[in-house]
Amino acid sequence: MNFTKTFYFLLIVVFGVKLLSAQDIVSKNAISKINTIKGALNLAKHENDTLGIAKNFIYLANFYKDLGLDSEAIKNYHNAQQIHLKKDTLFVYANNKIAFIHLHLKQYAEASQYSQSSVSIAKSINYKTGLATANAILGSVYEKQSNYNAALNYQNESLQLFESLNDSTGIALTNENIGSIYEDLEQYDLARNYFNKAYSFESAKTSDLKINIINNLADVYRKQNQYEQALKLTEEALNLAQSENNKQQEESALKDLSRTYAELQDYKKAYEYLNKQNLISEQQLKNQNIQLVSAMEVLYNVKENEAQVAILNKQNQINKTRQLAIIIISLAVILVFVIGVMHLKKRKKQEQKLLTYKQQLLQADLDIKTAEEASLKREIDIKISALTNYSLNLAHKNKLLADISRTLNNLKSRNPELVKTKLKDIVKTINSDLSKENEWTELMAYFSQINPSFFKNLKTQVHEELTSSEMRLCMLLRLNLSSKAIASILNITPDSVRIARYRMRKKLPLASKDDLQAYILNL
C-alpha cells in the first residue's frame, strides 16, 4: 500500500511539473483568444453595431466561464444585456448562462430569479430552446432545495419542449435530471427508467453526459443491491472517463466502485479504489488550483494590457491635445488679425448699407403714402359717383312726382272719362319708371364697387344659373334688408319674396337648418 501511494504521489508531481511547463503556452493562448474577441468587440463599437457588441460580450463571457472566472463571465453577460436591451433570444441566452453559474455556485435564490425571468421572456417571444433550458435550471434549483414536486414539474416541462424541438442532448440531459430526482426520492425503478431513456439518446456519443448517465445507472443498481450490474456499468464509466481524460467522472466512478465493493464486504478492493479516488481527488484539487491561478494570471495580464493600452491612448490624446492647442493658438492669432482687417471693411460696408436702408425706408414710406392717397382718391371718386347717381335718381323721381301732381291738379275740373284715361297713363308712367333696368344696373354697379367679389363668389356656389331677379334678391339680402323692405323695393308682395327666397335656397348648397341671409352675408 505504501508503495502504491508513493507511486501515485510521484505521478502527480511529474504531472504537475508538466502542467506548469505547459501553463505559459495555455496562458498565451488564452490571452490571444481574449485579445481576438476584444478586437472584434472594439470593431463592433467603432461601427456602432449594438448586436455585434452584445455577441462579442457573450463570447467573452463564455470564454471566462470556461476558464472558471465566474464573476468576469457574469459581468460580461450583463454587459451584453445592457448594450442589447431588446428582450430577445440573446437576452434569454445570457440570462440562462447567469442562472447556471449561480446554480453551480449554490446561490439558489439568484439562480431562480434569473431563470424565472428567462421563462417569462422566452414565453413572450416563443423561444422554446431558451424556455426549455430555463425550466431545466429551475428544476435543478428546486431539486437542490429538496422541493421535488416543483423540480419534477419544471423538468417535465423542459423535457416536453426538448422533445418538440427533437433536441437529443436536451432530452438526454432532462431525463437524467428527472432520474436524479427519483433517485433522491428513493424511487429507484423510476430513476433507472429515466436514466435508461437518457442513455438511449446519448449512447452513440462519447460525452461527459453519457459517462455521468452510466455512473448514475450504476449507482441505482447498487442501491437496489444489484451489485454485478452496478460494477459492470461503473467500470464502463471508469474506462470512458479515463479515455476522455475526464478526471471528475473518473473520481466519481472510483468512489462508486469503492462503495460497491464495501457493500460486497470486499474491503481490500474497496480500500484500493478509495485510495485511487483520493489520489485523483488530490490531483483534481491541484489541477483546479493551477487552472485557477492560470486563469487569474490571464485575467491579470489582460487587465494590465488594457491598462497599458489605456495609458498609451491617454498619452496619445494628451499629445494630440497639445498639438491641437498649438494649432488653435496659431490660428487664433491669424484669425484676430484677419478679423481686425475685415472689421474695418465691414464697418464701412455697414455704414454704406445703413445709408442705403435709410433711403429705401424713406422711399417705402413715400410709396405707402402715395398708395394711401390713391386709395383715398378712389374712395372719394366712388362716393362722388354714388352721390351723383342717387342725385340724378332723386331729381328724376322728384320731376316724376311733380308731373303727376300737376296732372292730378289739372284733372280736377275734367270729366270722369278723361280723368280715368289720364289716371291710366299716370299708372303706366309710374310702372314704367319702377321697372327701369338702368337704375338697377347703376345700383348693382355701385354695389359691385363696394363688394367687388360678391357676384363672382355667388356664381361659384350655385348649382344653376341665376336670373337677374335672383341676383337682385341676393344683392338686397347682402345689404341685410328685411323681407318687407325687399318686397317694397322689388314692387312685389312679401309672399313673393318668401317664394323667391325658397327657390334661391334650392340653388345654393344649404342644409335645411342653414339661414339663407347669414350664408349670403358670409360670401
Automatic annotation (TrEMBL):
It comes from Neotamlana sargassicola. This is Tetratricopeptide repeat protein. GO terms for biological process: regulation of DNA-templated transcription. Residues 224-267 form a coiled coil. Keywords: Coiled coil, Cytoplasm, Membrane, Repeat, TPR repeat, Transmembrane, Transmembrane helix. TPR repeats lie at residues 172-205, 211-244. One of its GO terms (molecular function) is DNA binding. Residues 463-520 form the HTH luxR-type domain. Belongs to the Rap family. One of its GO terms (cellular component) is cytoplasm. The chain crosses the membrane at residues 324-344. It is found in: Cytoplasm.
